[in-house]
# Entry
Amino acid sequence: MLEAIVLVGVGGLVWTLARGWAVLRALDRLLWRRLRLDAEGAQVALDRPTALGRKAAEVAQRYIGVEESPRGSNRGAHVDSFLRFVGLSPGQPWCTAFVCFCVHKAADELGAQVNFPKTGWTPSLLAWAKREGRLVTSQEIASGVQPQEGWVALFYYPALGRVAHSGIVVKRLPLGAVVTVEGNTNDDGSREGYKVMRRVRLVRRIYAFVVV
# Structure
């Protein structure tokens, strides 16, 4: 009889602990999905787009169809302006320069001050996002965080051993996909393309996101 009581007691304790752990895990996931703290302690929402993110997505879509002139040159009136904006000379790869240009133009149109970097080097954008607490990793996406309009998608290239392409999320699709607007790409999704265009990307193929 005593052994039965002990077994029941132990079983009840195990169930209680398991239940408590499950509740804590659920609460942790809920809190993670609701907010993230950046380096200054400000709350950055992860469950909805920001005003700046929406505007950045809007700005990016205005440039769809912009092409290099001539193709393959990393040149052209708009392309030169993207590169010049981040302090690069004409003829450089320009996908991340385009992203930074769009975010800053969006901030100007909103009358907002931002510390978003001006860079054409994708690893620099990744490093900034890590410092500022604005990086959402693939593991965090797998845990339930949903990409939002205006977030910057970062793409990793194993052959280069680094992130080497970026684009701006403009829409979330069913079945784990997003629509992005990317510069320096083409119909094949190259990072060395010649125009600004919409791409449909599987979220699981995206290395990380930068919250805008």
Notes: The chain has six helices and eight strands.
